[in-house]
Amino acid sequence: MSNTLKNIGEAFAGESQARNRYTFFAALAEKQGKPRTAALFRATAQAEEIHARRLFNLLLKDKTLEDCLKEAIDGETYEYTKMYPTFQAKAKEEGKNAEASLFGLLGPVEEQHAKQYTQALEELKRGVDLGDTGLKVFLCPVCGFIEIGKDPYQCPVCKASPDKFIVVS
C-alpha cells in the first residue's frame, strides 16, 4: 500500500471521528444554553463529513458492493470477537464496571451486524437484495441492535421496548 493511500485512510478516520465528536459537542453546547456555539460545532461537523466523503471516495473508487460487504463483515467480526471482549476484560481488571458493561453490551450488537452483512453478501451473490422489498429495517436507538423483517418485540440486547425502535429506510 502506498504512503498516499495510507494517508488518505488516516485522514478519513480523523475526519470521521471529528464529525462525530463535533456533533456530540454541539448537543452539549445546546444543553448548556450556547446555541451559536452549538451551531458552529454542527457546521464544522458537516464540513468534516464533506471532507471524509471526498477522502472516502478515493478509497472506494475500485471497490464493489461485495468488497464493501466483506470489509464490513471483517470489521464487525473483529469488534465482537477481539476488540470488545479485550476492552471489557481490561475495564473489569481496572474496576471500571460501567465501561465493562458497555463493552459487553456492544459485542452482541456487532455480532448481529456481522451476521446481517453475511446474509446480505450471500443474497448479493445470488443476485438479490437483502430479503424482499416488503421487509423493514428496525434500529434500536439505545444499543444499535438491528432487526430486519419482523416488528421487534423487545430489543434482545438492551431490552428496550418495541416503541423505541426506529424504522430505517
TrEMBL record:
Name listed for the protein in its UniProt record: Putative rubrerythrin family protein
Alphabetic keyword roster: Electron transport, Transport
Organism: Streblomastix strix
Domain Ferritin-like diiron: residue ranges: 1-128
Segments passing through the bilayer: none
Pfam families (alphabetical): Rubrerythrin, RUBY_RBDX
A GO MF label: oxidoreductase activity
Protein's UniProt keywords contain Electron transport: yes
UniProt xrefs under CDD domains: Rubrerythrin
Highest taxon in the source lineage: Eukaryota
Every Rubredoxin-like domain range: 135-168
